[in-house]
Write a structure and sequence with these properties.
With about 150 residues, the chain is an alpha/beta fold. The chain contains 4 helices and 6 strands; from the N terminus they run E-H-E-E-H-E-H-E-E-H.
């Protein structure tokens, strides 16, 4: 049985993992079945359904090491993601000019390969939000409404 929503987190220091785990709890409370992957490879994923990507930015705007292989595989294999809908949440610091660079790249790669983003991309500035789960939870409530429209 395929989960309703596959959460995929990319994290260097763990903050994106915590946000993803918090959102998974909220999704389960809302009646969705979920699968959680901290880092992922393409062959672990069903290329249909709903993905929720939560990633911090590493180095100079790069995707964290545990998520990099997935996006490299999507590009190398020219994966057909036209049956994927996804949500995109990025964590970053406005102190860097590459603010939320990883989620911007991930968003572009997914859409380049046919995936359809649901709702707006959320970019959380951790210098403004000590608890990034808070803005993520507000975004998730709106995202669930969009999911239920389909």
């Amino acid at each position: 049985m395929m989960p309703d929503i596959t959460l995929i987190s990319g994290s260097t220091l763990g903050s994106a993992e915590y946000v993803a785990e918090h959102l998974e709890e909220k999704l389960v409370q809302a009646g969705f079945s979920t699968k959680m992957l901290h880092g992922a490879e393409l062959d672990e994923l069903t290329q249909e359904g709903i993905w929720l990507i939560v990633t911090s930015t590493h180095g100079a705007g790069e995707i964290p090491d545990n998520l990099q292989p997935l996006f490299e595989q999507i590009e190398q294999q020219n994966a057909d993601l036209s049956k994927i809908q996804f949500g995109a949440i990025g964590l970053g610091s406005k102190e860097y000019d590459t603010f939320c660079g990883a989620i911007k790249t991930a968003d572009r790669i997914l859409q380049d390969h046919g995936a359809k983003r649901i709702g707006d991309r959320l970019e959380i500035d951790i210098t403004e939000h000590e608890i990034p789960e808070d803005p993520a939870e507000i975004w998730l409530e709106e995202w669930i409404i969009l999911l239920n429209k389909d």
